[in-house]
């Protein structure tokens, strides 16, 4: 686990953090779809015009790209001043803090993309298992998780 993460006291770590999290998030999105609560942002994305949620995916993906550029610039600044005797330690610390904050922002924006992508998949009836099978189908046999589902050959579509 990352130094930035923790398991709440009294809870056991899930066997797969990303798997457990994506399953819980997809379940929450599906439940909000079924609940049909007009006050729910998720429900509005699922029931409104498709363009609204697609614009959010594009917007959030753009924010990930910008955040990644910021993180790269911050990391480059840290590397450029490493070992430089003329740069005060407090400035090096400030640069390191800035790089850390840039990575935190990138993680935040990436989570927005994943959330909105899962809303799109729910809207079109594509579950996590089917999505996982698509990802597995893109891996070589040695890379795929043992027992991982694959997309049936007649449903494999690469490009248009």
In words, what does this structure look like?
The structure is a single chain. The chain has 160 residues and is mainly α. The chain has a domain at 17-126: Orthogonal Bundle (Helix Hairpins), CATH 1.10.287. The chain contains 5 helices and no strands. The chain starts with 16 loop residues before the first helix and ends in a 23-residue tail after the last helix. The model has no long low-confidence stretch (mean pLDDT 91).
Average pLDDT figure:
91
- SS-based class: mainly alpha
What is the CA-CA span between the terminal residues? 39 Å
Summed up, the helix count is: 5
Pathway: Amino-acid biosynthesis; L-histidine biosynthesis; L-histidine from 5-phospho-alpha-D-ribose 1-diphosphate: step 2/9
Catalytic activity: 1-(5-phospho-beta-D-ribosyl)-ATP + H2O = 1-(5-phospho-beta-D-ribosyl)-5'-AMP + diphosphate + H(+)
EC number: 3.6.1.31
Pfam families: PRA-PH (PF01503)
Features:
cytoplasm, amino-acid biosynthesis, mainly alpha, 160 residues, globular, HisE, 64% helix, hydrolase, Helix Hairpins, nucleotide-binding
Task: Give a nutshell description of this structure.
It holds the Pfam family PRA-PH. The chain has 160 residues and is mainly α. The protein has helices at residues 17-35, 41-47, 50-81, 89-123, 128-137.
């Amino acid at each position: 686990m990352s130094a930035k993460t923790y398991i709440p006291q009294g809870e056991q770590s899930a066997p797969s953090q990303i798997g457990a999290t994506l399953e819980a998030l997809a379940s929450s999105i599906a439940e909000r779809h079924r609940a049909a609560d007009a006050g729910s942002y998720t429900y509005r994305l699922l029931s409104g015009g498709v363009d609204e949620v697609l614009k959010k995916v594009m917007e959030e993906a753009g924010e990930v790209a910008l955040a990644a550029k910021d993180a790269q610039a911050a990391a480059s600044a840290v590397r450029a001043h490493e070992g430089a005797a003329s740069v005060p330690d407090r400035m090096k610390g400030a640069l390191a803090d800035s790089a850390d904050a840039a990575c935190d922002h990138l993680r935040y924006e990436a989570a927005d993309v994943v959330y909105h992508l899962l809303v799109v998949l729910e809207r079109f009836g594509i579950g996590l298992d089917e999505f996982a099978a698509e990802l597995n189908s893109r891996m070589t046999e040695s890379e795929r998780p043992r027992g991982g589902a694959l997309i049936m050959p007649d449903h494999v579509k690469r490009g248009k």
